[in-house]
Design goal:
The protein is mainly α. It has four helices and two strands, in the order αβαβαα. It has one domain. The mean pLDDT is 88.
Amino acid sequence: MAFYTVRTLKRTVPPALAGVVFLSGGQSEEDASINLSLMNSSQGALPWTLTFSYGRALQASALNVWAGKTENMKAAQAKFLERARANGAGQKGAYNKGSGEAGESLFVANYAY
């Protein structure tokens, strides 16, 4: 899928565009990081930046760890930083490892933003 997404972008998006920003679309945190990395590493240099604007795929596991409890704040911050680093690596095309619960699907039927 990454190959075809990038190929389509190359065929249709002007090189003058500064960047293309992806939403996670209900993918698991892990899948979102991996797919972003695959797109950024699939076809060499790109004329624009491919990056992310993830909500759930950036913070879902951190919110699960935190669970609204003050005593979980440090662990939740560490989890959030882990996901931020994963997505940062994905934006560079350099992410390729898993991180446990981040593999759970975040798909919600009829989700409204």
